[in-house]
């Protein structure tokens, strides 16, 4: 019986769109491309999510001619990491029916800076951030560590993510999975009809 519903963050709870965010942070097309290529698509971005590099070290790694632009983008990108409000009614119903709700996300430690303003997160019982644990999806170890962190059973949990590889990783750890495509109604139907949740 499912007791725990675990959500990814990007493109499930919040809209992760590097093109859109870079456009908001830039004054022209050239700056937008610099932000995308030298920040969001960079090795440093992955290292931040892995918890292997600090924000200060990331800034120091930027090319000198682009450093101020990229530093600004690094410290302000999450201003445009916007919520999907359509997921909130589902979270409310799950919470009102005594399901435990968790976040399991590949993201950096800046999470603490923006999470307080995300309405959806007030329904969550716990947050597992990759950078704080030095583990990344879809490595099976992150799912095992997540379960241990919150004293959960794999067979009582379902993981919702928009990336199939991450769902496959969860399944290797014994956790049921659902690959989310942005359709909340379809997700709700799956939880009720296939996973037999009652809410």
Number of domain modules: 2
CATH architecture of the largest domain: 3-Layer(aba) Sandwich
Gross morphology: globular
Please estimate the helix content: 40-55%
The count of DSSP E runs of length 2 or more, i.e. the number of strands, is 5
Biggest β-sheet strands, sense, barrel: 5 strands, parallel
Q: Give the quaternary arrangement of the chains.
A: single chain
CATH topology of the largest domain: Rossmann fold
Structural class: alpha/beta
Round the mean pLDDT to the nearest integer and report it.
Answer: 98
SSE string, helices as H and strands as E: EHHHHHHEHEHHEHEH
Give me the number of helical elements.
11
The poorly predicted ranges are: none
The share of residues in extended strands comes to: 5-15%
Provide the CATH superfamily of the largest domain. Answer: HAD superfamily/HAD-like
Q: Whole-number radius of gyration?
A: 18 Å
């Amino acid at each position: 019986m499912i007791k725990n519903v675990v959500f990814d963050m990007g493109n499930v709870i919040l809209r992760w769109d590097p093109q859109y965010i870079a456009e908001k942070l830039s004054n022209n097309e050239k700056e937008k491309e610099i932000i995308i290529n030298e920040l969001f698509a960079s090795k440093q971005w992955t290292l931040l999510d892995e918890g292997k590099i600090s924000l200060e070290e990331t800034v120091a790694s930027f090319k000198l001619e682009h450093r101020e632009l990229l530093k600004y983008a690094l410290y302000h990108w999450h201003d445009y990491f916007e919520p999907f409000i359509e997921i909130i009614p589902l979270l409310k119903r799950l919470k009102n029916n005594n399901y435990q709700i968790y976040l399991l996300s590949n993201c950096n430690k800046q999470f603490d800076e923006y999470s307080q303003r995300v309405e959806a997160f007030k329904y969550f019982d716990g947050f597992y951030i990759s950078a704080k644990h030095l583990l990344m999806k879809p490595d099976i170890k992150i799912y095992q560590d997540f379960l241990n962190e919150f004293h959960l059973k794999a067979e009582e949990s379902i993981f919702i993510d928009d990336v199939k590889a991450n769902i496959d990783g969860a399944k290797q750890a014994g956790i049921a999975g659902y690959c989310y495509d942005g359709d909340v109604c379809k997700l709700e139907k799956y939880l009720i009809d296939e996973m037999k949740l009652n809410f």
